[in-house]
Amino acid sequence: MRELNSPKKNDYNQLISIFIMSVLMFAYISYSSKVQKEKLAKEQLEIKNKPTSKDSNSETGLVKPTQVAQVSNAPQGKIQTEVLSNQELRIEISSQGAQVSKVEMLKHQAYNNETKKREPLFLIKENNSQFGLQIPTATGVVQTQLLNFTPSKQGNSIVFSAPVGNGVLQYIYTLLEDNTLDFKIKSSGLKLPNSVNIDWKMDAFALEKGRRQETQFTEMYFSFDKNEDVDDETSDFEENEKSLDWIAFKQQFFASILSSKKGFEKTSGSVKNIEEGKHIKNFDFKGSIATSAGELNEDLAWNFTPLDLDILKGLGNKFDEIIPFGWSFIGGMNKYFFIKIFKFLHDNFSMSYGIIIMWMTIVIKIILSPIMYKQHKQGAMMRVLKPEIDEINLKYKDDALKKQQATMDLYSKAGASPFSGCLPALLQIPIFYALFQFFPNIIDLRGKSFLHADDLTSYDSIAQLPFDVPMYGSHVSLFAILYCVFLLIYTKMTSNNISQPTQEGMPDMKFMMYLMPVFFVLFLNSYASGLSWYYLVSNILNIGIVLVIKHFLIDEEKIHQLVQTNKAKPKKESKFGSKFNEILKQAQEQQELKNKK
Q1: Where are the beta strands (DSSP E) in 144-243?
Q2: Rounded mean pLDDT of 233-242?
Q3: Residues 83 and 92 sit within 8 Å (Cβ to Cβ)
Q4: How far is Cα 581 from Cα 574, in angstroms, rounded to an integer?
Q5: 324 with 225: CB under 8 angstroms?
Q6: pLDDT for residue 44 is more than 80
Q7: Is residue 590 part of a domain?
Q8: What whole-number distance in Å separates Cα of residue 221 and Cα of residue 229?
Q9: Average pLDDT, integer, range 47-75
Q10: 8 A C-beta contact, residue 421 and residue 13
Q11: What helix, strand, coil percent values describe the chain, rounded to 5?
């Protein structure tokens, strides 16, 4: 069987497109890393310059410690804990501050990076979350998190009450069927100003296997103006004009969300990295809630939820946009294509998740195979035309414009497209970015094993290094290595005729070709193993498809006959071709005038 190789021009198009994709990916990850480093440096500077007292709160309307009212009139006695639970959640509420003190996700487990084992998953425990109001009284401001409330059961609700000044403050909690913790705040006899400040802080626990990746996907999400504008921040935000509907302290696969029916005013938030230990990031949210006739009557809600697309859509409020599946049509590809394929395979066939990913890859390759066939067919046409192109290059070696015009005329008559080699690689760019966001964010794969990988949303490892390699890590991913090996094989198969260009300043294409797998090893080593497995299968399929196309579907003699037939046909010049030739003629005329001078 004959082995057909694409001509140099077509190979350049393919390699340039793949190189562009690699550069874009490298820039994306490098930018993310740079942002994290800059943010960390900023945080360290803030910590260094941070005042030792609470005077810094004065800018947000909070009072200094000397102004805080004594709470000796609060109910005395031991701290009590009330529990609300169902099959998915177990929530403990402490009488100290009447705030949520423990949240356990009963159907999920956390990964302990010290013991390398899974354990019960808590979003809140050990005082890692603090929520409170600052209520002004005649003697100062009362911090509600310092009060010891008195709990009482009323039906399926728990009411926490505490005297404040000359009035009473109540928190009312009810666990609803959709796992929403309804949270009402009411007061009587307090004679409050127009608004009351609130403060919610949380040190988020590290719950996943890969700390680097978990840090990347742990951020703050919020919504303004009746869910018209959902945004996210990895650092700070401040908004004094718009009303905030909800605030989410988002981790890689879970979120703690506080929402208000009326909205929060004069809001601000910050996120700070925690480099080591059991916590991964510090969240801080401040805002205010409006009063009515000097009293509080606020409808809030807590949602402690896994980031499952169906669950979040069921909760409404555009909570599903918390999952970072990508911007614009990239996110649409994930939500309406990749997830649909994934769910269909999962719901209709009894297969492991690794096999589901393999079949996803096959489906995508079947969809793209006509494009690959057209690419290699065009490559064969370009190869047939190569002797004539060489003649044109020799004939007009001193006139670049005439050379370009003659070459384009030849392509047009033969029905060939010199740009066809770029298309498949360019189509891979949005697919790559979509899957780049898909695998680390689909909770169905969390904790699911395949072959040697114990979690398809985190890295796989076959060896642990005694040291950390910059940009690589301290472990060795087998999927990433195998993918890059097959990438080398595929590139070698499709680029045998690549030679170093003679033009000064042109890059060494072969060098870049063999450098790309090195980039991919660095990128994928600490990324979701599901993505590495997908690209490994994809590359193996690419090799098979290329072999079938070259040896069974493309006949060079028939391609030669087709080219000659096309050249013999009268061709009506396209608008683009006409415009392009007109530009070339104008450029040629200008060059001739310049030479005469």
Answers
A1: 150-154, 157-164, 167-175, 180-188, 195-205, 219-224, 229-233, 236-239
A2: 82
A3: yes
A4: 10
A5: no
A6: no
A7: no
A8: 11
A9: 37
A10: yes
A11: 45, 30, 25
- Which pair of tokens denotes residue 521? 């090893």
Domain region containing 285: 51-323
Q: Is residue 596 part of a domain?
A: no
Find, among 34, 37, 36, 20, the residue nearest to 519 by Cα.
Answer: 20
Pairing of strands 254-273, 279-290: antiparallel
pLDDT at 162: 95
For the cut 50, the answer to whether the pLDDT of residue 219 exceeds it is: yes
Cα–Cα distance measured from residue 410 to residue 482, given in angstroms and rounded to the nearest whole number? 42
pLDDT at 425: 65
How many CA atoms, within 13 angstroms, populate the side-chain half-sphere of residue 364?
A: 28
Q: Which of 461, 438, 585, 597 shows the shortest CA–CA distance to 526?
A: 461
Considering the domain architecture, whether residues 393 and 248 belong to the same structural domain is answered as no
* Cα 582 from chain centroid (whole Å): 46
- Contacts of 574-580 with C-beta under 8 Å, sequence gap 24+, read 574/412, 577/408, 577/412, 580/408
Distance CA 503, CA 389 (A): 17
- Report residue 108 as tokens: 């999920």
- Quote the percentage of the chain above a pLDDT of 90: 49
Residue 533 pLDDT greater than 90, yes or no: yes
Please give the Cα distance from 509 to 500 (Å, whole number): 7
pTM for this entry: 0.78
Residue 364 forms part of a structural domain: yes
Considering the domain architecture, whether residues 313 and 379 belong to the same structural domain is answered as no
How many C-beta atoms lie closer than 10 Å to residue 401's C-beta? 18
Name the band, by pLDDT with cuts 50, 70 and 90, for residue 530: very high
Per-residue pLDDT band for 325 (boundaries 50, 70, 90) equals very high
124 lies in a domain?
A: yes
Which region holds residue 227: left if phi is over 0, alpha if psi is between -120 and 50, else beta? Answer: left
The pLDDT of residue 586: 65
By residue count, the chain amounts to 597
Please tell me which residue, 327 or 530, carries the higher pLDDT value. 530
Q: In this predicted structure, which of 132-136, 436-440, 487-491, 498-502 has the lowest mean pLDDT?
A: 498-502
